[in-house]
Amino acid sequence: MIHNLGFPRFGAQRELKFALERYWRGELSQHELLAVGHELRLRHWQLQQDAGVALIPVGDFAYYDHMLNMSTLLGHIPARHRNEGGSYDLDCYFRMARGRAPTGTPAPACEMTKWFDTNYHYIVPELEADTTFAITDESLFNQVADAQQAGFHVKPVLVGPVTYLYLSKGEGDRLAWLDRLLPVYQQILQRLKTMGVEWVQIDEPALVMELDADWQAAYARAYEALSGQGVKLLLTTYFDDVLAHRELIEALPVEGVHIDVTRGDDQWEWLETFPQDKLLSVGGIDGRNIWKTDLNTLRGRLLKLHADRGENLWLAPSCSLLHVPLDLSLEDKLDPTIRQWMAFARQKLDELKLLHDSLKDAAVVDSEIWQTHARAVESRKTAALIHDPAVQERLKETKNLSVERQSPFAVRKQAQQAWMKLPLLPTTTIGSFPQTPEIRKARRDYRQGVLPEHDYVAAMQAEIAHVVKVQEELDIDVLVHGEPERNDMVEYFGEQLKGYTFTQHGWVQSYGSRMVKPPIIYGDVSRPAPMTVEWSKYAQSLTSRPMKGMLTGPITMLQWAFVRDDQPRSLTARQIALAIRDEVQDLEAAGIKVIQIDEPALREGLPLKKSRWAAYLDWAVHAFKLSANGVADDTQIHTHMCYAEFNDIIDAIEALDADVISIETSRSRMELLQAFVEHAYPNDIGPGVWDIHSPNVPETDEMIALLEKAIEVIPVERLWVNPDCGLKTRGWAEVKPALVNMVAAAKTLRARYDS
Description:
Blueprint: H1 15-24, H2 30-50, E1 56-58, H3 66-73, H4 90-98, E2 112-114, E3 121-123, E4 126-127, H5 139-149, E5 154-159, H6 161-166, E6 169-170, H7 178-194, E7 199-203, H8 213-226, E8 232-236, H9 246-251, E9 256-260, H10 268-271, E10 279-285, H11 295-309, E11 313-317, H12 336-339, H13 345-360, H14 368-382, H15 389-397, H16 409-420, H17 437-447, H18 453-474, H19 491-494, E12 498-501, E13 508-511, E14 514-516, E15 520-526, H20 533-541, E16 548-552, H21 554-559, E17 562-563, H22 569-589, E18 594-598, H23 613-628, E19 636-641, H24 650-656, E20 660-663, H25 674-678, E21 684-687, H26 700-713, H27 732-753
Parallel strand pairs: 1-5, 4-6, 5-7, 7-8, 8-9, 9-10, 10-11, 15-17, 16-18, 18-19, 19-20, 20-21
Antiparallel strand pairs: 2-3, 12-15, 13-14
Helix pairs in contact: 1-2, 7-8, 11-13, 17-18, 22-23, 23-24, 26-27
């Protein structure tokens, strides 16, 4: 049987994104927003059923985040976000995610961080001593009823209780809340039984982690409590292998288990001996990348399992298809040679159906559709356009190139301060400024050939001049050009590099209504020409203050793309690093002596198993240093990271040897800074004082309080003042007052600490 673990939420034309943003602006009623969600769910359920999916996932849809859905279902809602009187509604949900909704009192948003090793962000549950749980949000049950009424055979999706606690934050032992949590999960399962549900998908991706004895014991405890509730449980794991916990998984009292075999090739031997009393679901279609599946190889591995297990074997993608674009058929401008190698969410379900049919009937392998698919897979392996001899030669030539700065940080800082003459607590921003409708229209018109290049350049220069003028008026110390010419911090660069290609409609959710269109790395990467130099030179010509050149680092360029899988990721990262290195050196030669190379995805790329961290960090750090460190001592290198647990990579962050690192810390109230304190991080650091993912404008006193927390643990002479992230998603009405307050906070503390 075919089933699916989850489906993209936003629609082929990003309908949900635009509805959400209209609702938040007060242009759409809540009833109208809910109607958009209802229509999309019905449409997507039908698409899956038409593709042959026998069990349709329900509960994978979210207006912001599925982890947040689980929190509201469990009644795990911070008091600051509830309505007066303690009630719950959709605006409580949005206040948790954004800090603000059309109704209710604004309050600090919950923390947001990466979902395992993806670029999807989830809202982190907050565990406090008085936390209680009770079914609060009826959305899941309503959606199950809607799907059943429409005639779909449903499989509700829940985040499992152990993974829920594993991904939560709170002081002390998070497992202390398990006994409070399990009765509510039991109630949820019992209600689903009364609705006629047979199977419940219960996602436990934490099982791919290297768990200690307490967490392993928690699984046994949790599923002993959840068994016998009248529904069958499909324990679902993904993103890596679970071999370390095979005995635990086999012993759990669940009716079925889903295993992702795309990340753990050595699991096949185990699966051949998997207990026959449990249903086995195999995820062999990669839900994390956009390349066609080698169905011949996958079928060969499944034949024995199918012969041994029969109907006790289910087929599914490796994980939710949330992480890939919706439909390749919308892409009519891709190079046909490259396009034939790809499969998006709908096409992956087609692959799944084809694979399933081939196990039932061997004649399918001889069909034209199977053979066409197989020829496409084979053609990619030998295609000439993937390989660039010049890139391969440069890799050899630079194999032993030094990636160290000429002098230690203390020496470099003196050389940089000699010309920058920065005050105590210098202020800067992370890079982008608001992308207004006018900017987006000019870019779109230029790409479509409607706006001549001369007029496009003039429009971008006018916006750069405006941004520079605003920053000077605000008295910001180190300026940026605002990035009006950039659609996305990865896509913009990828469009100018060889080896990348792009989609028109390949949108993937990053967080909330934020969608990204990941580039596709199909071949060897190189930089044909400078990418940012002219824009940065123009911006620097408008001011005597230092102007930052803004680049995206090689690991983020890798992580936030769909990456070729025919060579090690480390090799692709090195190719990108050499391209970025060329840009860094061209910027320096053009007089841009402050260069920021953003690496928000460095932590995200960390393998899920700690035993594999060292190898990854070795090549990831090397790639950053290769890109950044071929500059003079008086050129200041910045980097930026956000929404990550820095404790895991603090040694690697120090090894980057950036002169200044800016980090996101406002949502955690500077808690994330603690990793830098405990490690005695030696270089300059800019802990963010403004949560730019919330529309709330922080007051000066709030920023001062955050900076005072930082000053308690980091020498004031090594601190910078900046927002958490870039400002492209905020409006000028929020940006100007927030930056006014930020500069005022810095000046207040300068007066206090400058002796």
